[in-house]
Amino acid sequence: MTARSLESGAPARERAASPSLWSRIWQNHAPGYLFLLPWLIGFFGLTIGPIVTSFYLSFTDFDLLTSPDWVGANNYVRMFTADPKFWASMRVTVIFVIFSVPLKLAFALAVALLLNRGMRGLPLYRALFYLPSLLGASVAIAILWRQIFARDGLVNDFLSVFGIAGPSWISNPQYSLWTIIILAVWQFGSPMIIFLAGLRQIPQDMYEAASLDGAGKWRQFIKITLPLLTPVVFFNAIIQTIEAFKSFTPAFIISGGTGNPINSTLFYTLYLYQEAFGFFRMGYASALAWVLLALVGMFTAFSFLTSKYWVHYDE
Amino acid sequence: MTVRIDRRKFLMGTTALVAAGAAGVMPAWAQASSLRLTFWGGQARADRTYGVTDLYKAAKGTDVEGEFLAWNDYWPKLATQTAGGNAPDIIQMDYRYIVEYAKRNAIAPLDEFVGGVLDLSNFDADQLEGGKVDGKLYGISLGANSVAMLINTAAFEEAGIEAPTNAWTYDDLIAIGEAFKTANIRGGMKAIMDGSYSEPMLDNWLRQRGKALYTAEGKLGFDEADAVEWYAMWAKLREAGVCVPAEDQALDTGPLETTMLVSGKAAMIPSNSNQLVGFQAIVQDKLAMVGYPRIAAGVGGGHYRKPSMFFSVAGSSANKEAAAEFLNFFISDPEAVKVLGVERGIPCIAASRDVVAPTLDEQSQIALNFVANLGDLLGPLPPSPPAAAGEISESLLRTLGQEVGFGAKSPEQAGGELITGANDILGRV
Fold first, then answer.
1. Residue-wise over A177-187: b if at least 16 C-beta within 10 A, else e?
2. Could you report the predicted ipTM of this complex, rounded to two decimals?
């Protein structure tokens, strides 16, 4: 029927009512969907499929080798009532998020401001400062970190100049998490690039007007730069917080997958990994994953709700 | 993480395949002409293993494709492959996991091939027994080994201290520790690593006291008093500077390179007899081995000759008989046995031992002699550990040991928590 209507050569709009709406959409968009097919297969097969499966598995005792048995909400109940390691890993991750994200953003903004002064060779500096972000999640850097913060590492060599004998930062439960926070802050490249782009959007005449009115640099920063930059700050904060909650590689490599010493670097994701691939509790690990998703979701929703009080959009 | 097919070989292979396809000749991929093999270990083990697969290819024309991973990465991958019904035909198996895999039919019983392609008539009885689950043979032991204290002999010489012998005790350990402190070599090298969360060392210590880590029923074989005494003893050793401080020990995350022996912070570490070869490959100083210390002079029975590892055949394998045939070659062919040496432990067939002995280098000879001459250190083979043993060792024992080490918990607290925590994990599974 639709084929005939096309053959007749009449403009489709005039016949809007005659063929069913759906078949018309199909006619118009079939090639589009065809081109999308590889992505759709990937999305449903490799993303949605596993997500749904993991939700189901979170209510089972699946151990990879035997078929899963339904255990109801047991996994979730255990997590909140009888698993001190769950809380320990939650604590480590929350401390990591609370300290690494603001520090990283502040650092990224400071460097972006520095680079925004129209210096010579800017592309080179930009690339150099971005480099850690590319390398940061790599295994090599995590191993390097082990060396730098070891007892006879670079940091202690430096401290010994001042007569301080530093501890083995990486293997001391009091400091080990901080070495990973520093590693995260060091990877300030991607928020920096975004800040830099944001700074370029701020009209120069605002600064000119402000300096005519006698506002100093600091005042200009507080009154002009920061308010106009809040959408970018908001974006960066959300992205970086989600990244921080998901952080896995540095702790995994630096602690050799153990979360040592005394679970001081047992990130939530690392605990999840241990439960899943160390002890084969896929059901419990799936439940852990869903709790993490809920947590990140709640945080993001909260950020969006509060954003209207501090994020300024142009209009 | 090395698959043996490199890119060039792969390209050549696929090109040949396409060419063959174009010529209308499909390659003859008979089912049994290719086997997959997976094992954990380092490069030294891989080289030896691939030496044997090359020999096998030359002798029988069967390709055995190997893949090896580090211990920590091996088990997740194997479990995932098994769950996906895609496990390799031949699987290197450990005492810790064999029951679990056997009970779930993830590995196949080999009894039907014994006497056929698999000739075990001269196989050591105790090693054969070690590979059985519920009376059926699920794993072929690739070598006998024992726990052993690895000793950096160069460090002992440098410090002017006499190296211990199999007769040594924990009191001797303290004396050696004091001597190392006085000698103060290599920036304050300690006598021994912190063994308070070494599962084999605790096991050995308990066995000498007539206890065990686990009973045959899979319950804890010791009580709170034992655990408290254990932690108190190590607290004393730590305080006296006999063992390395907690901060150093925490750098040891498992791989050989991070151990106190390789990093040069301690002159001795508890390990296994077959690992001498692996350690010697990455340590300059000459290494030797003795038994673990005795709790008092003359007390023995802590050690046992255990199967260092097995080869098992996957339950899902379509080529079980071909796999069993390869296993037979692996343990008994004289050339294969020579290539393998004692890197996986002492061969379990007398004829293989005789073939190997003259070809061994000094280090391998030490390992062979050590396992052959355990004397009164030798006790009975313990039952295979419960499935949760790995978790108890890796999460509970280690964390508690570190907590005592860093002074966050007293030996009394840690001892109590070890018992309750272990029972909790055992009851959970």
1. bbbbbbbbbbb
2. 0.77
Tell me which residue of B110, B150, B154 sits closest to B133, measured CA to CA. Answer: B110
> How many CB atoms are closer than 10 A to CB B105?
14
Pairing label, strands B34-40, B190-192: unpaired
Distance CA B259, CA B279 (A): 10
Number of structural domains found in chain A: 1
- pLDDT per residue as tens digits for the range A238-287: 999 999 999 888 888 888 778 878 888 899 999 999 888 888 889 999 99
Strand pairing class (B34-40; B63-69): parallel
Q: Is residue B401 situated within a structural domain? A: yes
* Residues of chain B positioned with their CB less than 8 A from the CB of A252: none
Containing structural domain, residue A246: 83-310
Torsion, Cα A162 A164 A165 A169, to 10 degrees, reads: -100
The domain that holds A202 is classified in CATH as 1.10.3720.10
Contact A173 B406 (CB under 8 A): yes
Give the gyration radius of chain A's Cα atoms: 26
Domain of B169, CATH number, reads 3.40.190.10
Same domain (yes/no): B55, B72: yes
CA distance A214 to chain B (A): 56
- The 3-state DSSP class for residue B222 equals coil
Residue A139 lies in a domain: yes
Enclosing domain of residue B101? 2-145+307-374
Q: Is the Cα torsion angle B234, B235, B237, B238 positive or negative in sign?
A: positive
d(CA B321, CA B115): 12
Same domain membership, residue B160 and residue B46: no
* Interface residues on A facing B, Cβ-Cβ cutoff 8 A: 64-66, 85, 146, 150-151, 167-168, 170-173, 255-258, 260-263, 274, 276-280
| Interval A297-315: pLDDT, tens | 999 999 999 888 888 876 5
Distance CA B107, CA B375 (A): 35
Helix (H, G, I), strand (E, B) or coil at A40: helix
Cα–Cα distance measured from residue B279 to residue B276, given in angstroms and rounded to the nearest whole number: 5
Are A58 and A275 contacting, i.e. CB atoms less than 8 angstroms apart?
no
d(CA B370, CA B366): 6
Q: How many helices (H) and strands (E) does chain A have?
A: 16, 0
- For chain A, report the end-to-end CA distance as a whole number of angstroms: 50
Chain-chain contact of A262 with B253 (C-beta, under 8 angstroms): no
Give B76's contacts in chain A (Cβ within 8 Å): 276-278
Residue B4 is predicted with a pLDDT of 53
**Helical ranges in B270-346 per DSSP H:** 275-280, 320-332, 334-340
